[in-house]
Specification:
Elements: E1 20-23, E2 29-34, E3 37-43, E4 77-80, E5 92-96, E6 106-109, H1 138-143, H2 186-191
Antiparallel strand pairs: 1-4, 1-6, 2-3, 2-5
Organism: Vitis vinifera
InterPro entries: BetaGal_gal-bd (IPR048913), Galactose-bd-like_sf (IPR008979), Glycoside_Hdrlase_35 (IPR001944), Lectin_gal-bd_dom (IPR000922)
GO molecular function: beta-galactosidase activity; carbohydrate binding
């Protein structure tokens, strides 16, 4: 049910606007379309207030593992591909299944400043390298090596690579450091 006294507002985006997201904070179950493109079906879950312990990614995944933002929605940002947006007159259609407050949704332009990526010998090879026989023949999988591919959308370029290490780097995003084993030409090779 939508209260007629509330108004929905869609901000027209300029042709050179950055990729966009829409944000919703309130509970509800809904589906969303932007300019006829189905974004998906979503329902907001709230992280338990007492579930935010130290994060450890090892082992099997379960829903309470690595919980953040306890007591708040687990996800509030949803990506709208830039190619789906027009310079103006964009249409956001919401189908509310269980109530919620659709008029508290906002649309914002976002621009990615930093991207972190990591690949190691223990990672699986890229999916495009797999074939049906790889699921049967263990030797085929062992011959393939993990890869990482970085690319930008048309009209954008990678401006710099801050860190690269072939060896045993330590740390995490924006806090990486060289480990005891490091190939000195790693950054130059990755920057090509």
């Amino acid at each position: 049910m939508i209260d007629e006294s509330e108004k929905a507002e869609w901000t027209d985006l300029t042709p050179d606007a950055s990729p966009s997201t829409f944000t919703w904070y309130k509970h509800g179950k809904r589906q969303a379309w932007v300019n006829g493109h189905h974004i998906g079906r979503y329902w907001t879950r709230v992280a338990p207030k007492d579930g935010c312990g130290k994060c450890d990614y090892r082992g099997h995944y379960h829903t309470s593992k690595c919980a953040t933002n306890c007591g708040n929605p687990t996800q509030i940002w949803y990506h709208i591909p830039r190619s789906w947006l027009q310079a103006s007159n964009n249409l956001l259609v919401l189908f509310e299944e269980t109530g919620g407050k659709p008029f508290e949704i906002s649309v914002k332009s976002r621009s990615t400043q930093t991207i972190c990526a990591e690949v190691s010998e223990s990672h699986y090879p890229s999916l495009q390298n797999w074939s049906p026989s790889d699921f049967i023949d263990q030797n085929s999988k062992n011959k393939m090596t993990p890869e990482m591919h970085l690319q930008c959308d048309d009209g954008h370029t990678i401006s710099s690579i801050e860190f690269a290490s072939y060896g045993t780097p330590q740390g995490s995003c924006q806090m990486f450091s060289q480990g005891q084993c490091h190939a000195p030409n790693s950054l130059a090779l990755v920057s090509k």
